[in-house]
Design goal:
Length: 313
């Protein structure tokens, strides 16, 4: 099957009804290109061809580190809290750097998150980067901005892992000291009971939450800033809501369809919790928070309906 050929006679309606069928990946690609076209329409300042000249600012150069290059002519921007660990497991298998089987879930999480495991675009020279822009399959999986934000909060500030304790000591204590009235000694010492409202207050206080007044922590930095979609021109823009279908298509387009994205991954309960965490927030706070993630909402076609039940006028 020619992976670059899109049957003109296939309609997007047919694609939508048969997205998970392995034999109609050409059809899926047609649907993906329609999805991708929406993003391009929202990016009027995109340049073509996409070369390293597009990365002119220090922020764009810095965010090249989020783009992982695979040895199988694929490049992915792996945003945290968007099936990040499982995608890194699959990319490790694509690179042939795991020799104890082909089940991604058997690869320990700490292995794929270790420093230096993957080559990212920031470690490449301009010639190698231009090759990725012109020859590689580039893909990105996105998630509802507020769902991803809540996932980060629950994982790093409510969690009890070693990584969570690090964030609680480093950021949680800072939040409690800045925003809590009469905090306990335990809270000031451990920072392990930050409320969601306090976390949002922290995000809305740029002098505390922004690094060098330009970037948030990568766990809650908007994906548009992490992954430069208006520069990278991804071949595939998938969504967390259709993770298995879009991941299968990404592997197919990358020539790695002998691998399978983990189908036994633990379903996220974050979406079910959105109203519980967001309802107590003021409309003013949600509006200001929306402004931080406005480009993610706009480019990736998400809405506030799931959180508020209505959109801002």
């Amino acid at each position: 099957m020619n992976k670059n050929k899109i049957p003109e006679e296939i309609s997007s309606e047919i694609c939508d009804s048969a997205l998970s069928t392995a034999s109609i990946f050409d059809c899926c690609k047609f649907c993906q290109e329609n999805k991708h076209r929406f993003k391009d329409d929202e990016c009027p300042d995109c340049t073509s061809p996409y070369t390293t000249d597009s990365f002119t600012g220090p922020q764009s150069k810095q965010n090249l580190s989020n783009h992982i290059r695979s040895s199988s002519h694929a490049s992915a921007c792996v945003a945290l809290h968007v099936a990040c660990t499982n995608w890194k497991r699959v990319l490790l298998l694509m690179n042939g750097d795991w020799h104890n089987g082909t089940n991604p879930l058997e690869i320990p999480g700490h292995v794929v998150h270790a420093e230096g495991v993957f080559k990212n675009l920031s470690s490449l020279n301009d010639t190698e980067r231009n090759q990725i822009f012109s020859e590689y399959t580039r893909f990105l999986i996105v998630r509802h901005p507020f769902e991803r934000l809540l996932s980060a909060y629950r994982n790093k500030l409510e969690g009890r892992t070693a990584s969570a304790r690090y964030f609680q000591r480093r950021i949680g204590r800072q939040i409690i000291k800045a925003f809590r009235v009469n905090p306990s000694n335990h809270s000031l010492t451990h920072g392990d009971d930050v409320t969601f409202a306090e976390f949002i207050q922290y995000l809305l206080t740029p002098e505390l939450s922004l690094s060098n007044q330009s970037n948030y922590n990568e766990h809650w930095e908007p994906i548009t800033k992490l992954c430069n979609p208006c520069i990278m021109k991804y071949n595939l823009l998938g969504k967390f809501e259709t993770l298995l279908d879009d991941s299968a298509l990404a592997l197919y387009l990358a020539g790695a369809d002998h691998l399978t994205f983990p189908t036994g991954h633990k379903p996220s309960s974050t979406r079910k919790q959105l109203r519980k965490y967001f309802d107590p927030l003021s409309i003013s706070a949600i509006r200001r928070l929306y402004e931080i993630y406005a480009e993610d909402f706009r480019l990736f076609d998400y809405s506030l309906e799931d959180v508020l039940g209505f959109e801002f006028g």
